[in-house]
Structure formats: structure tokens, C-alpha cells
Amino acid sequence: MSCCALGALAGCTSTTATSPTLATDTWLAAEKIRQQVTPPQFADRTFDIRDFGAKANSQQDNTKAVAAAIEACHKAGGGKVLVTQGKYLCGAIHLMSNVNLHITKDATIAFSTDPNSYLPAVFTRWEGMEMMGYSPLIYAYGQTNIAITGEGTVDGQANRTTWWPWKGSNFSTVDWGIAGVPTQTEARNKLMQDMENNVPVAERIYADGSYLRPVFIQPYLCTNVLIEGITITNAPFWLMNPVRCENVTIDAVTFASLGPNSDGCDPESCKNVVIKNCLFDTGDDCIAIKSGRNADGRRLNIPSENILISNCKMRNGHGGVVIGSEISGGVRNVFVENCAMSSPELERGIRVKTNSVRGGLIENIFVRDVTIGEVQTAIVIDFDYEEGDAGKFTPTVRNIDIRNLTCQNAKQVFQVRGYQRSPIQNLHLTNCHFKEAAKIGVLEQLDNFSASNVTIKGVELSV
């Protein structure tokens, strides 16, 4: 059964052609998230890393000095660890409770490209799979009240000759590899097998010699997290990946990295998250909401939920606001408002991606007042991502409401297709206008789809 169309596109079916009445409390729930997610507060104490021996000469390794400042701040009851006036070379930074790492506008932390700087291995997630791997460049585990603030820069120093070649030519249309440089392929495949075989995480050792690039910023099992004002650039892998965190605020951050898998912000199995006023210019998804991959995601069964995305701008990226693909634990209650996205390199605007290997319950996704300038495909709900329909974990996607969306120019408006055994349920579009489009695309396997005042090139979409 194929679904709805415009003009010559035929075979469209729907249970209703009228827009549902949106419950008055839907966006009140978003407002509740906005009010409940409050940034942590810090004591009025300052610990300048220069007082602990740090030097801004771009040559001295300041890892020990920064660690000493963080520990002193933590032991004193908390406060601000100050990074100011210059460029500081550093290895892995591990935040502790009640510590605000504050980087002033005139300061940069430039991270070492020596993999040994991120040893010993720590408990982490990599593409939604648990393992012992390289420490993220900035990491915190089980901490409360932590922050990275200021108008300064954290620079992973990744490029076509450092970190990025580990991607290789697999899993990408771009060949990032360099002849003779090992890649992630073997370790990635083995980690996936370890996960499916339920190998204990402590025995999944994937640091030195595995070539799995570290996440840039990863708070793990943390409560009350603030990341505000900084610029994140040249990331080895994903830029920001809060995992199993609660009460997270990400405000006015610039995500600028065009390398392989340079996802901007990927909340994973997190609850109560606000992402606002951010700028994304990334080599992969701008925002991708996740909840663990396959066996690990189902074993833990922790969804991402209660997430508000507001007043953000997206440029380059595989997708603007994305749900998936590591989605086995599910996602619910996501609100997207007042965002703008546009670039010839922006592949998709709003996207859900899963398959019957990943599975997951994805529900209650609300989008309003979004503008898209230039995009390849505006709205995507894809049940055939990567492995496609090759597993036994049929996904469920339901209750998606998109209203007041305007797209200036799309090569394709829709790529929306469920399974016959699991149609996309309750997809509703209201006041959405696609001004220029090369083609309408696909709308198939839908149950209770509606389009109210939806136009494509000035012609109303008929259901």
C-alpha cells in the first residue's frame, strides 16, 4: 500500500484527511521541560590553571595542571576552573562534581592528537555500544553539577592526517583513509559481535590498537550538566554525547567540525534535556537523539525522553534534527521549535532513522515554527536505514505532529515509509509549505496520516 500524493503521484491512502486538534497541553509539556531543566549553580571560587603550572605556549602538556586544578576545586566544595589568555595543549580532561570548567573568549584548549593521551581506557559508549575505550577528550562519569562554560574554544585538532583517517573508506561515501593507516573496521565489527554475544563490558577492551576514535565531550551517568557558550571544533568523532544523564542544558554552543561522523549533539538515553540557541555546522547529523544500539540498547532499555530543542541554527549536516539510528531503547517526548536550517550540503531536515535490526519505540515528536532554506529531503522517516529490514525487532513510530514548517527549496519533500506490518501511526502535518521542490518523493505505509493546509509549489497536498 502506498500513500498520499500530489498531482501525478498516485496510490495514496489515509484514514483521515483532516488535521487533528492538537491537545492544548502538548506544548505546555514542552514549557514544563523548559522550566524544570535548570542549570547548576557553582560556588564563588576560582582556580586558575596557571596557578597549577599550566602554560599557554602550545607546547607544554598541561594535562596534569588542569587535573590538579579540577581536583582542588572539587575538594574545596566546587567553583570555577579558569582557562584564560592563550592556547593550552592538553590530554584527556575528567570533570568532577561541582566544577565549572570556564574557558574565556581569548582562550583555547587544544587537545593532543596522540592516542596515548586518552589512556587508560574508560567505560564509554561508542556508536551506542558499551565498551572500555579511549577516554573522551572531556569526560565525566557519575558526577553531579558540572559545566563547561565561557566563550572560548575546545579544539580536537583532528584533520585529514590525524584521527579522521581511522574512519577509512567503509561506511561512508567519502574516503577518509590514508594508505597504510589502520582503520576502525575490524574493531567495529568485533565490538558489534561482542555486544550481540553479551560479552561483559569489562572484557570489551577497545582502546589502544583498535582505532575507534574518541567522542569529544561525554558526560556519562551525570546529573545537572551545563555546556554553554563554547565553540567545539575539529572533533575526532561525535562532538557532544551525553549518555544516561539527567537535567542537561546545552546553550549557545557552536558546533563546527566537518570530519567523518562529526555529529553535533547526540543525547543518548538521557532525560530532561534542553538544547537552545546553538549553531551547527557539522560533517554528520547536527542533532541526533539516541538510546543505545541493538542488544545493548535493549538490555538497558533506557529511552531518551523529555527533550526540548529551541532557537537553533543548522548549516551543513546529514540531518538537522534526527532521531536515531542507535535507537533500540526508544525515544519519546521530543519538542522542536523556532529552528532554522539551510545549506546545499544539508541532506535532510527532520529525520527518523531505524530498521528491524535497531528497532525501538519512537513516539510523541512535536515540531513547530521551523524554517528550512535549502535541503535535499525535507522530511524523512526511514525504516530501511543501513541494514534495512533484516532483523526481528520491528520498530514502532507514532504520534508525530509537524506544523508551521516552511521550506524554500527541497530536491525532495518526503522520504517517509513504514513497514506494512508496522505502519507509521498518526503523522500529522499542519500549515506546512514547500515552495520549490524537484519532486514530492515517497509517502508509504502510514496509518492515520493527515495534511491540513499543506502545499507543494503552491498546490495543496491532497490525501
Any key phrases for this structure?
mainly beta; Pectate Lyase C-like; 25-stranded mixed beta sheet; 3-stranded parallel beta sheet; 31 strands
Describe the structure.
The chain has 463 residues and is mainly beta. It contains 4 helices and 31 strands. It has a 25-stranded mixed sheet that branches. Strands 4-9-13 form a 3-stranded parallel sheet. Helix 2 (63-75) links the parallel strand 1 (46-48) and strand 2 (79-83).
Overview in brief:
The chain has helices at residues 26-36, 63-75, 185-196, 294-300, and strands at 46-48, 79-83, 86-90, 93-94, 99-103, 107-111, 122-126, 129-133, 138-141, 144-149, 153-155, 205-206, 217-220, 223-228, 231-233, 246-251, 254-257, 271-276, 279-282, 287-289, 304-310, 313-314, 321-323, 331-337, 340-341, 348-353, 361-382, 396-417, 424-444, 446-456, 459-460. With 463 residues, the protein is mainly beta. The chain has a 25-stranded mixed sheet that branches. A three-stranded parallel sheet has the order 4-9-13. Strands 7-8-12 form a three-stranded mixed sheet.
Q: Any idea what the CATH architecture of the largest domain is?
A: 3 Solenoid
For this structure, the CATH topology of the largest domain is Pectate Lyase C-like
What proportion strand? Answer: 35-45%
| Overall morphology | globular
Terminal-residue CA separation: 14 Å
Uncertain runs are 1-23
Task: Reconstruct the topology from this structure.
Elements: H1 26-36, E1 46-48, H2 63-75, E2 79-83, E3 86-90, E4 93-94, E5 99-103, E6 107-111, E7 122-126, E8 129-133, E9 138-141, E10 144-149, E11 153-155, H3 185-196, E12 205-206, E13 217-220, E14 223-228, E15 231-233, E16 246-251, E17 254-257, E18 271-276, E19 279-282, E20 287-289, H4 294-300, E21 304-310, E22 313-314, E23 321-323, E24 331-337, E25 340-341, E26 348-353, E27 361-382, E28 396-417, E29 424-444, E30 446-456, E31 459-460
Parallel strand pairs: 1-2, 2-5, 3-6, 4-9, 5-10, 6-11, 8-12, 9-13, 10-14, 11-15, 14-16, 15-17, 16-18, 17-19, 18-21, 19-22, 20-23, 21-24, 22-25, 23-26, 24-27, 25-27, 26-27, 27-28, 28-29, 29-30
Antiparallel strand pairs: 7-8, 30-31
